[in-house]
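User: My collaborator and I are trying to settle a disagreement about how two of our proteins should look. Neither of us wants to argue from intuition anymore, so we agreed to look at predicted structures for both before our next call. Could you fold the first one, then the second, and keep them clearly separated?

Assistant: That sounds like a sensible way to settle it. I'll keep them separate. The first protein:
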Amino acid sequence: MSENSLPSSVRGRPDFNGKGSRFSKPLFFILLVAGLAFAGLNLVSDVEETNMPVTSLLPFFLLGLALLIALGFEFVNGFHDTANAVATVIYTHSLTPGAAVVWSGFCNFMGVLLSSGVVAFGIISLLPVELILQASSGNGFAMVYALLFSAIIWNLGTWYFGLPSSSSHTLIGSIIGVGVANAMLHGRNGLSGVDWDQALKVCYALLLSPVVGFVCAGLLLWVMKRFIRNHQLYRAPQSDQPPPVWIRGLLILTCTGVSFAHGSNDGQKGMGLIMLILVGTMPIAYALNRSLPADQIPRVAALTEVTAHQLRQLQPAAAHPPAARDVLTGFVGSNRMNSEVLPALAMTLNEVGDEIRRYGSMDNIPAQAVTNTRNQMYLASESIKHLQTAKVTLPQETERNLKAVKSELDSATRFIPMWVKVVVAIALGLGTMVGWRRIVVTVGERIGKTHLSYAQGASAELVAMATIGAADGFGLPVSTTHVLSSGVAGTMAANRSGLQLATLRNLAVAWVLTLPVSVLLSALLYWLFTRF
């Protein structure tokens, strides 16, 4: 990494050596212990509610280990990515470094708590469907550990060198690596192990986000110069004094928005992986949403029965049909429609309807049937989604019923307990308060050749806040790192301040290498873990 940063003696450079509050470390450890205790108490409570006899401590050990690693991923994500959100308020002296990271950590916390969960399950849908259906198997655990370890290793490596690379890119690459390795280990073409339609959709969003950040932040700065004639806005800070109140308020507002949006978007990735871990280790407690009202069950059963009947009329089953699960698993994995898909989906919906009608509520489904029921629901929902993306022509009434069935099935299988949101929020928030300085210095000093002005900081943050917020609404994972650091570069280019080419080269190399390295690393780790 280039060392062309502002000397500590330069006027306007933030003071990173100031003493923090004496309460910071005790508060950090109190929150850390409280978060772990909160997770443990909720786990015990959820398991006790199922009346499941404890015959072995091994599942609890595996669960605890996997949860710690998943929360570690979110912790690293906090100080790796969120440093981008605080760089502008720190370098414009809108907030002191200590106040900025604490405030950003709180906003990340709130963003996670109020997130929708759409991104979480969008990430999960990228994984090989057969591994999702076998989440409790050895291969399922190998998948989760390979994903988390490869993402953590690359994120820590780029953080060490002060390179603001993308945690989202890293996680997507890790998922692709696991999919490719799983397919090759089963004697299939490696490319068949990935849902490429969904993967390309995500990759397009990730690749487009830095372009949006660079162009839009530069344009916004140009527009501000044309219409806002306050010269102070376009000057770099001349001392360590905070800017005028209205400028300071704008910068803090944008930092708040980016931090909240980061928590809402990035926090969901960890939540999705944690739910996969919970389903794999404690299916009786977490495979199905046991809070669904009992009066919803008859409606769901009737809807699945009607929809299955409509599908059978469209495509009658063969005399000796293949196993429905094999047909739908192949369809979801390849996205190739054939004459067996609709009969297989009809059969699966019938079985789901019969199962939930027999027991009357999710709570009453016995432990030995829970995993199979969830897998059937998940597979049916994914098959309906792929029918929609494949643009299969169906009667309007059948399409409406399929959409309604998918919504009901998702409410039973795609849920996130509040305690999971809370512990992920704590991990991400605490991570924000640790190790942020390396990335902050890169964004604040080493991208452009001049000190960041108030207008440049506001432009980059406004664009990042809007882009990440929009992506969260559409359920797309984007990179806070790429959007904001590209936005800073865009404002430097628009201002003709000059760019530090050595830093940009290092950033470009890190960004280009992130996907292939994470693919290779996760594939190797998955292969290694499946040997045990």
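The second protein, kept apart from the first:
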Amino acid sequence: MGSFAGNTNGLLVPHTTTDQELIHLTNSLPDKVKVMRLEERLSALGNTIVCNDYVALVHPDLDKETAELVSDVLNVEVFRGVIANQSLVGTYCVLTNQGGLVHPRTTVDELDQLSSLLQLPLTAGTVNRGSPMVAAGLVVNDWTAFCGMETTSTEIQVIESIFKLEGEIGATPASAMHDALIESLG
């Protein structure tokens, strides 16, 4: 997951993506989803970009041209920043259109500034029994989330609350999720 970044508008993949992989991705996604291979030195795009359908926070050292492509392909407003003094914003933050979970050492002031900048409710938290690398243990969208096996019930409650998924993690039968995913790709 650290290799790419995307939302409902587009998918950004690193320069190491082969032509065959690019074609497969393009053919596997709805026509409205743009897929673009980026020539970027910081090629672990999922670690350097965190986004939802409206905004993206990017690594401070991301090339200007790359930041413009992020804006164009994902159709988002792009901001440069850090989270808890960490420049790998995509590692230490997870966003949806409902909210965001950030590194547990994010100060209250930083949290307020980021929340205001991104126009989203944010909360500091962890996954997998205290890991601050929230994106390494959590995949979430606007209707469900999947987290690492070591994630505690308290961490799950925080995740469900900030992403407005009350009672949803693990509550939806696998067949219903499969059907919904297939329907959304159709």
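Some points you might bring to the call about the second protein. The chain has two domains: 1-81, 83-186. Residues 54 and 76 are 5 Å apart (CA to CA).
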